[in-house]
Amino acid sequence: MSDSESKRIYVTGDDEITVYENNLVNLKTKDGQFFEKLEPRRLFPVSKASEYITLLDTDGKEIAVIRNLKDISKESYEVIAYSLNDYYLVPHITKIISTTEKYGTLHWCVDTDRGIKYFDIRNRNHDIKVYSDGRVRIRDSDDNRYVITDYRKLDCHSKKQLMPDL
Amino acid sequence: MDTNQFILKNKPLPKAAEPIIEKMTENGQHILFVIVGDLSLKGKYSETALIFTETDVTTFDVSVGEAKTIPYSDMKEVQSKRMYGNATLSAIMPNGKREIFFRYTYAVAALCDAAALFISHINEGAELNEEIAVMTVTFERALSVCPKCGRTLLHPGAECIMCRSKMKIIKQLSKYVKPQMKLIIVCIILSLITTAMSLIPPTITGFIVDVVFPGGNGTSNVTVLNKIAEYLGSDSGKLLLTMISLLLATYIFQYGIGIIRAYLMRTVGDKAVAALRTDIYLKAQYLPMKFYDKTSTGSVINRIAGDSATLQQFVLRITQEAVVHAFQLVGIIFIMLALNPSLTLYSLIPVIFIVIATRIFSLKIRPYYRRIWRRWSSVFATLADTIPCIKVVKSFTGEERSADKFKTKNDDWLQMDLKIGKLATAFPQIISFMVTCGSLIIWAIGGSKVIAGESGYSAGLVVSFISYAAMFYNPVTFFANLSDSFQGALASTEKILDILEAEPETQAESHVMPDKLDGKIEFLHVGFSFDRTKKVLDDITLTINPGEVVGIVGTTGSGKSTLVNLLMRFYDGYSGEILVDGHNIKNFDLSGYRAQIGYVQQEPMMFSDTIFNNIAYSNPGASVEDVIHAADVANAHGFIARQPDAYDTMLGERGVGVSGGEKQRLSIARAVLKSPSILIFDEATAAVDSETEHLIQEAIDRLIAGKTTLMIAHRLSTLRRANRIIVVDNGKIIENGSPDELMALKGKYYKLVQIQSMTADAEKMREEERL
C-alpha cells in the first residue's frame, strides 16, 4: 500500500459535508478533522457518475474520496449532488430533432434536459461514442459534452437520425 | 440597429438585449464589447449577454429578462473557471463572498478568459486602449473559426474549406481524372466502336430466323442483309454459313477492340487512384500534430490504404464499364425503336420498377455502409494499436485479452456485414427477376401478334427483340448496382476528403527566414490548451539569450514538453507570442525554421532503413564523412563500427536491433548533422542506464557548444551544464534563475535536488553494501 493510499480518507455516513460557497464544500470527519474549500470531482465522469468522487483542495490535492454516493448521509449527498451538478454540465439528449450533414460535419438540433441546443459535430467517427449498454456520448466542435442515456429508448424519429452512427 | 453593428461581439445580439444596449448608449455609456453567451446561471440553455463598458459590466439573461450591472471596482479576484462542459466567471464582491456572475459553455470560454483578465487589468490601472486591443485580437481569433462548421480557418476571415461548394467531392475526384483526358477520349471512341459491333448480332439472328430458316416470312427490313441474300440466291446453306461468318467477324472485332479498350481504361483508373493516394500520403505528412492527437494512426493508414482501394475499384468500374454501358443503352433503344416502337415501349415497363427499386435500395443501404465502415475502422484501429505494442501485451500475458477484444470488434463487423449482406445480395436477384419478366412480356405480346399475323411482326423480330432486351437490361442492372459501389465509394471519399481537406500546418503569408538564427528565444504571455478544457500553459513569459543552456524541470504533466512543442511549432493554436531572434515564429517559413532546430526526443524513433540513412534523415545531402563525423560527435561511431553491417545495418521496425541508448545516440547524430542553431533535448537520457547516460552526456556537451539549448530533464544530473534553470509547475514558470540562485531560494528546485541527491546517496550506499 502506498503512502497516499494509506492516508486517503474515505468519506462515510458519519462524516459531514456542508456548503462552503458555490460548488465548494467543507468536510468534517467524525474524528474531528476539518477541511474547507474542497471541490468534489468525479474520478470516473464517463463510466461511474455516482461512484468515486474525489474531494480536492484549492491546490488540486486530494483530501478525501467518496466511494459511493449511497454511502454518505442524506444531507451530505444533497450538497455533493448540487456541487457535481454545478461542475459537470453534460446535457442529457432526450430527442434528436434534426441532423444535417455536410462533408462529414454534422449539424444537430436536439432537445435536452437543459433546453434546445444546436451544435456541430466535426468528426462523427470520433465524436460520437456508442457504448454497449446503450449510452451514447457526443462531443461538439466546442468540446462540450452531451449524453444519451439509452439510445434504444429514444423515439423512432430520433433513433432514425442516430442510426448511421450506431 | 445600426449602432449594434459596430459593437465588438462574437455573435448577433439577442433581440431582448437590444433595448438595454440602446438605453445604455442613451445614458452616454460607451460600450466596448459584448460577449453573447449560451447558458443561464443555473446551467440551462438560454441567450445571455455580457456587456462591457469603460467602468462596469452588465449581465443579461433572456430567460430572466433582467439586466444587472456591476462596477469593475466592486469586483476583486475576477476568475474564469473552466469546469466540465461549462465554465463560470466569478469575483469576490463587496460582501466578501465569491459570486458567479456569468455561466457559459466552452463556445465562448476563450473570450471569457480574456474578459476576466480585462477586468483585472483595468482594476490594476492598466491602459484601457491596450486592453481593448487585446480583446479585439481575442475576438478576431474567435471569428477565425468557421461560424457554420466550427473548423478553424486557415487565417481569420478565410473561406471555410468544408463549407465551400456542393460539387466538391466530384470536383476533387475529377482533378485526378483530368490528366488522363487524352486516353479517356481514345477509350470513348473505342467504346463507341465496340458498342456498335455488339448491336449487330441480334439483327443477324433475326434475319436468320425470318429469311434463312424455312417457314419464315422470307423478307427482312435490314437492307444490307437483303442485298446479301439477293446476291447469294436461294442457297440457304450458303446463306447460313455467310451469316455465321459475319457473326464471327463481328465478335472478333468487338472483343479484340474490347481488350485494348479495357487495358487503356484500367491504366486511366490506376493512374488516377495512384495520384490520389500519393496526394493523401503527402497531405498526411503536413497535417498538424493536433490532427494526429485526435485521429488514431490506424484510421489514417486505413484511409490511405483501404479507402483509396475502394475508390480505385469504383473509378475502374466507372471508367471501364459505365461508359460502355451508357453507349449500349442509347444504341439499343435507338435500334429497338427503329425495329418496332410499340414493342419497345412494352419491354421498357420493367425499367420503371427497376429504377424505383434502386432508389429505395440506395436510401436504405447508405447508413449501413457508414455503420460497416465504423466497425471496420474499429477493427483496423485495434490492429494498429496492439501489434506495435506487442511487447506490453506479452509482458502482461494479455494475448488472450487482446485476441478477445479483436474478436469482439471483428464480430461486430461481421454482424453488420451479414445484415447488409442480406439486403445487398437480394437486390441484384430481384432486379434479375424483373428483367426476366420483361422478356416474358415480349414473348407474350410479340408472340401473339406473330400468331395473329399482324403486319410488321415476325418470328425473327421477336427473336432479335428478346436479344436486344436482354442486352438492354444488362446496362440497366449495371447502373442499378452501381449505386451499391457508388455508396461505398462516397463513404470512402468522405473519409479521404477528411484528410485532403484538413487544414495543414499553417504557413505564414510572409516567409521570413534569416540564413542562420542567433537563437534568441522569447515567450510573451503564452497560453495553450489542447482541448479547451484544461490550460496546459498559462501566461508564460520567458527570454532565453543566444548560447544559453537552459534546463527545464518540473513534474510530469507540468507543461515542460508542451513549451518545447510550441517552440517547434507542432501546435499553433496558442495565445501570446513566441519570438525567435525578434521574429514571431508564425511568420517563419515552417520547414526552414524547423531545419534550424535540433530535436532529440526521449524515445527516438528510427525508420526501417540503414543506420546511415537514419542519421542522414536530417540532412539527406550529407556526405559520408559528414555522417561519420556526426556519429563521432554523438559517441555512436564506435558501436556502429562493431555491427557486422556497420553503417549499412538495417534497423527493423521501430529500430529493433539496437539498444535504447544506442538509438538515442543515433538520434543525437541526426541532430549534429543538421548543425542547428537551437537544440532541444526532451528527456534525452531518461530511459538509459548511468553508463550510457555518461556517453550521451559527453555527446551532448560536444554538440551544444555555442548553441541555444533547451534541456528538459527529470534527472537533474543531466543539467550540470545548464547556466539557467526554469521550474515549470501547473503550466506556469514558478522559478527562473541560475542553479545557485535557485538553491538559495530553497523553493521547488531545491526540493527536487534534495530528493534526488537523497536517492543518489541511498543508491550509493546500497552499492557499497553490495561490494
Task: Provide a descriptive summary of the structure in words.
The complex is a heterodimer of chains A (166) and B (771). Chain A has helices spanning 3-7, 74-87, 124-127, 156-162, and strands at residues 9-10, 16-21, 24-28, 34-42, 51-56, 62-68, 93-102, 105-112, 115-121, 128-130, 136-139, 145-148. With 166 residues, chain A is α+β, with helices and mostly antiparallel strands. Chain A has 2 domains: 3-87, no CATH class; 93-165, no CATH class. Chain A has a 6-stranded mixed sheet with strand order 1-6-5-4-3-2, with helices on one face. Chain A has a 3-stranded antiparallel sheet with strand order 7-8-9. The model of chain A is unreliable at 1-5 (pLDDT under 50). Chain B is of the alpha/beta class and 771 residues long. Chain B has 3 domains: 2-142, PH-domain like; 168-500, Up-down Bundle (ABC transporter transmembrane region fold); 597-675, P-loop containing nucleotide triphosphate hydrolases (Rossmann fold, 3-Layer(aba) Sandwich). Helices cover 57% and strands 14% of the residues of chain B. Chain B contains 23 helices and 18 strands. Residues 154-158 of chain B have low confidence and may be disordered. Classes of the chains: A alpha+beta (166), B alpha/beta (771).
Radius of gyration of chain A: 19 Å
Strand content of chain B: 5-15%
**So what's the overall shape of chain B?**
elongated
Q: What would the CATH topology of the largest domain in chain B be?
A: ABC transporter transmembrane region fold
Largest interface in this structure? A-B, 37 and 43 residues
- Unreliable spans of chain B are 154-158
Widest β-sheet, arrangement of strands of chain A: 1-6-5-4-3-2
Cα-to-Cα separation, first versus last residue of chain B = 87 Å
- What is the helix content of chain A? 10-25%
Largest sheet, spatial ordering of strands of chain B = 14-15-16-11-17-18
Number of domains of chain B: 3
Number of strands of chain A: 12
* Oligomer type: heterodimer
- Secondary-structure element order of chain A, N to C: HEEEEEEHEEEHEEEH
Low-confidence stretches of chain A: 1-5
CATH level-four homologous superfamily name of the largest domain in chain B: ABC transporter type 1, transmembrane domain
The number of helical runs of chain B is 23
Average pLDDT figure of chain A: 86
Tally the helices of chain A: 4
Distance between the termini of chain A: 42 Å
Main sheet summary of chain A: 6 strands, mixed
